[in-house]
Amino acid sequence: MERSIFAAIFGGFLGILTLGGLAFVQAGPDFDSNLQPTTPPASPPAPQPKAEGDWRILDPVTYENISVFPVVTSYGQDTSAFLTLEEGLATGEVVVRERGSEEMVRGRDGRLVYIPQPTGASVNQLVLLNRSKRPLLLLAGELVSGGKQDRVIGKDRIVPVGAPPLPLDVFCVEHGRWTGSSQFAAALTIVHPSVRERAAVDQKQTEVWDAVRSGSTAAQPAAGPSPRISRSELQTAIAGNAHTEAYEKIYQSSAVGVSIDDFVAEVQRRFASATSGLKGERVVGVVVAYGGEVAWSDIFASGDLFDHYWRKLLRSYAVEALARPTVRAVASRENASEFLRRLSGRETMETEPGVYRWSEITEGHLTEIELEALQPKQIKLHRLFLHRTS
Question: Which comes out higher in pLDDT, residue 53 or 190?
Answer without folding.
Answer: 190
